[in-house]
Write a structure and sequence with these properties.
The complex is a heterotrimer of chains A (about 270), B (about 325) and C (about 260). Chain B is about 35% helix and about 25% strand. With about 325 residues, chain B is an alpha/beta fold. A six-stranded mixed β-sheet of chain B has the order 5-6-7-3-8-9, sandwiched between helices. Chain B has a four-stranded antiparallel β-sheet with strand order 11-12-10-13, covered by helices on one side. A three-stranded antiparallel β-sheet of chain B has the order 2-1-4, with helices on one face. Classes of the chains: A mainly alpha (about 270), B alpha/beta (about 325), C mainly alpha (about 260).
């Protein structure tokens, strides 16, 4: 069987992108709805810095904090995807077996479908927010855009995307073994939202929690790219953070492949 | 009592779904309400049941205006939509009946009596404990019928009750509807695409097309009116050689009384036996071309009704 | 009234049986819900590590407001969850027909047809937070406070329902209104914190336009001794009455315009 080239997966990305385009209005209303939480958080930090009597908290100035909470939204655009839901659905309905008879890799099909969604989110939500954040920082506070920081952010966010993609892929495959992926999915969302630092920077966590989180992949999803953007990770520190991300991509990626091969065996034995 | 009077129209954003519709139905009648897709059948039923509000006009069902006194009207009617079940999807069939008993305030004695009658007529017993989602289409339809009858409604609306059923099950459902009508003297309004439903169940039919009524009368009348219609199917050398116009002119016939068409190289002629002899027609064919084979049929009721839909026959 | 209660119990019991078929999902969902709430509280806790108070509100006062906000939200969530489905698919798929074919008020039937047990998680967390905060705050709690509290929670739930009803009813004209409903509902996110931290525009908007302020911050402030009884409880009831009347009128207008779906 001839291996399919990257080109043969492109239509999957295009398909998702276009179907999202046709739901534009609803999509933006949902984005606005989600942003209410961010704005509430914005006002909380405003009050917190006013009441704290100090310019910085855990090394974050008020400006840093505003940038942080909005850039988390941009990073979330790279990361959020429902690959686990898609995979779990196909496992449950048995349609996953269909993918074994096609000359393409299932993992890549899902990756590209998700990619369509991510590109859409990044283009129409992430990038505008990024530009607004840079604009506000420049015009109100005279902070010039740090091009290296932005480039680092994108690189790191792509890593975050890959980590979460493989994480979700593995999670979706777990539908072979547990039947309640819907509830688990909700649980997963809640945990990741908090532990990735998108509600509050990891620096604000108690020391013991920070120590534990250092050994988990959640930091790498949101916190790392945003810290690079803020210039809080620079030089060797940024390289180290990126290498940790690479480590997670490899670990989860290889686990995903192994699990998939095991799942295929199970599938062929069961006959789908 | 139990009679329905209607005179109404309803405008949709783009087109009038139903216009200048007027009819009344007596208690205990079984009326077939037919027409092609998009003719306005469902719209009419939905107005009579109180789901839709007509833009103008007036509907009375047993003295109640359905869309104004919806709840009062709901007590009087039972509705079955062939395409959409009203049973509680995830629950055993039996549970649906116990909920409906509460909803319609049916007392224990009546409930028992009706359940045993319906259970027998519709053969519900084998699947009463089965969740609705696991029923076959035929079982589901029977359960839906029973659910619509549990409060002994005066009027039963059936929208495509036999859609998707196989021939045997269709026949079962029809028999059940007959028995229900006979036992409770329930008025039945039925829409269907299957004219054998109509032939078996309805003395009266109302035909609508493009939101307007095109026929209202008995099936027998249609049959006697068009009972003298015959259809000649001829295999000839040159099917286009025969033309109907010269014969029409000669005998003073209308388009209904003599017509012809060529289908797959075969010449089909429809004629009214009372107005022109079959022999005259055949002679005319033989004069024009060479005959290979022929057959003669009584025109089917489906054909006639299709013609009515297409406005090819004059109903005045 | 007795008939309503009997019917409601009957229909809910049926729905519960349906849910039990998917019970593991439900339990995991409930656990997820506790986590979400737990993280929200952890966030507040971490924030307060850095400040003595938030614009004059102590940690336990904020916790009290946060917990209070859960209660009306949970009650509404428990009963009227079907409004989300109405706005999302019931109307556009013509499934609303069935609510018009029974001898019951269609809105009542819609509510009775489904309930959302996730709300119990919200309710439990809310009660725990309110009780914890109260024991730390040494407030005067007499009969008036208890009765006023209950009334305010119920009125707050009615405000939630009314706002949802208004935006869900739009689906009668728009076919789908779930995304708009979502935006409106998300505005409630602002009211679980002391609203003095926001600017005037947000305060006015959430008091007069989409009055979520009355579902948490305003009545909670009364119990914390910062607002009058008249504003904290009576005004809450007034707002609930006005908005429910408006929502119900819009709903009724929607019923008249309901177009069902073609076949």
């Amino acid at each position: 069987m001839r291996e399919a080239s990257l080109k043969s997966y492109l239509p999957f990305a295009k398909g998702t992108f276009q179907s999202l385009l046709s739901y534009r209005l609803n999509f933006f209303l949902y984005v606005i709805g989600e942003l209410t939480t961010v704005f509430a958080t914005y006002y909380i930090w405003l009050a917190v810095y006013k009441n704290s009597g100090s310019q910085t908290l855990h090394g974050f100035s008020l400006q840093d904090m505003f940038t942080y909470i909005f850039m988390c939204q941009v990073a979330l655009n790279f990361v959020s995807n429902d690959a686990s839901y898609e995979v779990a659905n196909e496992v449950r309905e048995g349609s996953i077996a269909m993918n074994l008879i096609r000359p393409i890799r299932y993992r890549m099909v899902i990756l590209f479908r998700i990619l369509g969604e991510v590109i859409y989110n990044v283009c129409f939500v992430g990038t505008p927010i990024l530009l607004i954040v840079c604009g506000v920082r420049y015009f109100s506070h005279g902070i010039a855009p740090d091009l290296l920081g932005i480039a680092g952010f994108f690189l790191s966010a792509v890593m975050g995307f890959l980590i979460y993609f493989y994480f979700n892929f593995i999670f979706g495959l777990s539908a072979f073994y547990i039947s309640n992926v819907w509830g688990m999915n909700m649980l997963k969302g809640a945990i990741i939202n908090f532990l990735s630092g998108s509600m509050i920077p990891i620096q604000f966590f108690p020391g013991w929690a920070q120590d534990i989180l250092a050994f988990m992949p959640f930091n790498s999803l949101i916190y790392t790219p945003v810290m690079i953007f803020l210039g809080k990770y620079q030089g060797m520190e940024a390289v180290k953070a990126l290498l940790i991300q690479v480590f997670w991509v490899l670990l989860l990626g290889i686990s995903g492949v192994l699990l998939w091969q095991k799942a295929i065996k199970k599938l062929t034995i069961q006959g789908g | 009592m139990g009679s329905i009077k209607t005179l109404f129209s309803r405008e949709y954003t783009h087109k009038r779904a139903v216009d200048h519709m007027s009819f009344s139905v007596d208690r205990g009648e079984v009326v077939g309400y037919i027409g092609p897709n998009g003719a306005g059948k469902s719209t009419t039923i939905k107005m009579m049941t109180g789901i839709l509000v007509p833009t103008s006009g007036n509907i009375q069902v047993d003295g109640i205006t359905p869309y104004e006194q919806r709840q009062k009207n709901a007590m009087n009617i039972g509705v079955v939509f062939g395409q959409r079940t009203q049973l509680w999807w995830d629950l055993p069939v039996r549970e649906t009946f116990s909920i409906l008993k509460e909803i319609y305030n049916v007392n224990d004695a009546d409930y028992k009596k009706r359940m045993s009658f319906l259970g027998e007529v519709l053969e519900l017993e084998p699947f009463l404990a089965t969740p609705v989602r696991s029923l076959s289409l035929g079982q589901r339809m029977r359960a839906d019928l029973a659910a619509a009858m549990i409060h002994n409604p005066k009027v039963l609306y059936l929208d495509e009750p036999t859609i998707g059923l196989d021939v045997v099950v269709k026949e079962n459902v029809r028999q059940a509807i007959k028995q229900l009508n006979a036992e409770f003297n329930t008025t039945v309004i039925l829409t269907t695409h299957d004219l054998s439903d109509i032939e078996e169940l309805c003395k009266r039919i109302i035909i609508i097309d493009n939101g307007r009524k095109v026929y209202d009368g008995t099936l027998a009348e249609i049959k006697s009116r068009f009972g003298t219609m015959r259809r000649l199917e001829l295999k000839v050398k040159n099917p286009y050689a025969f033309k109907a116009e010269p014969l029409r002119a000669k005998y003073g016939l209308s388009g209904d009384e003599l017509s012809c068409e060529v289908v797959d190289g075969q010449l089909n002629i429809e004629l009214d036996r009372n107005r022109i002899g079959i022999q005259e027609v055949i002679n005319e064919v033989l004069a024009k071309t060479e005959l290979v084979d022929m057959s003669l049929f009584e025109t089917k009721i489906e054909e006639i009704i299709k013609k009515i839909y297409r406005n090819e026959v004059n109903m005045e | 009234m007795k008939r309503f209660i009997r019917l409601y119990t009957k229909l809910s019991a049926q729905y519960l049986k349906t849910l039990l078929e998917y019970r593991t999902d439900f339990i995991i969902g409930l656990i997820a819900f506790f986590f979400i709430q737990g993280f929200g509280i952890a966030f507040l806790f971490m924030v307060f590590q850095n400040i003595p108070n938030l614009n004059g509100w102590s940690f336990y006062e904020v916790l009290f407001i946060y917990g209070f906000a859960n209660l009306p939200r949970a009650l509404d969530h428990l009963v009227t969850d079907n409004l989300w489905i109405l706005a999302g698919r019931i109307i556009v798929r013509g499934e609303f027909d069935k609510y018009l074919l029974r001898p019951m008020n269609p809105l009542f039937y819609l509510f009775a047809d489904r309930f959302q047990p996730d709300a119990f998680g919200e309710l439990i967390v809310g009660i725990l937070l309110v009780v914890t905060a109260l024991t730390k705050l040494s407030l005067h709690i007499g009969l008036i406070e208890i009765v006023g509290f209950i009334i305010a929670v119920l009125a707050g739930a009615v405000i939630y329902t009314s706002i949802k009803l208004i935006f869900a009813s739009l689906a009668f004209w728009m076919k789908r209104s779930q995304s708009i409903l979502f935006v409106a509902y998300q505005m409630a996110n602002f009211t679980k914190y002391p609203m003095t931290i926001y600017n005037k525009v947000i305060n006015i908007f959430l008091t007069f336009i989409i009055p979520f302020a009355f579902t948490a911050f305003i009545p909670a402030s009364w119990l914390l001794g910062r607002e009058s009884f008249a504003y904290g409880v009576l005004a809450t009831c007034g707002v609930a009455a006005v908005f429910f009347a408006g929502g119900y009128a819009l709903w009724n207008a929607g019923l008249k315009s309901y177009e069902s779906a073609g076949n």
